[in-house]
Amino acid sequence: MDSFVKMEQVTFTYDNNTILNKINLTLKKSKSYALIGKSGVGKSTLLHLLAGLLIPTEGEVLIEGNRIQHPSKDIGFMFQDLGLFPWLKVCDAISMPIKLDKRKSKQEIKEKVTALIREVGLSGMEHKYPAELSGGQKQRVALARTLITEPDLLLMDEPTSTLDEMTKEQIQQLISEQVEKRQTTLLFVTHNIEEAVLLGEYILLLRNNGDIETIANPLFGVDRAKENLSFYKACIDVRKRLAAVQE
């Protein structure tokens, strides 16, 4: 399968500090990747480079052979802090990325937003403000807003880190369903090893020297994976690899 996204010898320097050094990365189309690594290694910076929110100091970031130099509707980014504006109702927050698209009528936008609200389980919440929503509901709004442009590449920074266990499992299931339905390429950063094994077809371990180890995940897509002893063995294996990097 041909590469969909590539980072070629990418270095990013900020304030005379090298955050990422000569990164090489290939993502295949319609695959799911979990990005792990110790704190401060540059995982979030890597996502920002792929999103076009940062420009590499050296090297190239490519999607289908085209250089990424600015944000695009083809690349969706779900931020760690969600970025919901307190003065926007749910329906307005979700529609915001496509409101200026002159190719779509107001009716088309309304229908698309209504369908997404239903898909992510927010029916009846259309006119609520962020302050009136639970943590899980805010995550659903952020996910719907990210999906509204139908991105080919979906980037997520710690998508469930602030949630309780029950809500976390619900959001993980929702992400899995939406990515499978849309055949979107997913790359998400997580510190949760179980989440990496649950949602990542491949687990990418980012090291300090810029090397990225790719770990194929045989349990990806297995029904009720957490009930399988092999799931926890896989988590232990990934955790050991991560611990070895941190020593």
TrEMBL record:
Pfam families: ABC_tran (PF00005). It comes from Niallia circulans (Bacillus circulans). Transmembrane segments: none annotated. Keywords: ATP-binding, Nucleotide-binding, Translocase, Transport. InterPro entries: AAA+_ATPase (IPR003593), ABC_transporter-like_ATP-bd (IPR003439), ABC_transporter-like_CS (IPR017871), ABC_transporter_ATP-bind (IPR050166), P-loop_NTPase (IPR027417). This is ATP-binding cassette domain-containing protein. The keyword Zinc-finger does not apply. The keyword Translocase applies.
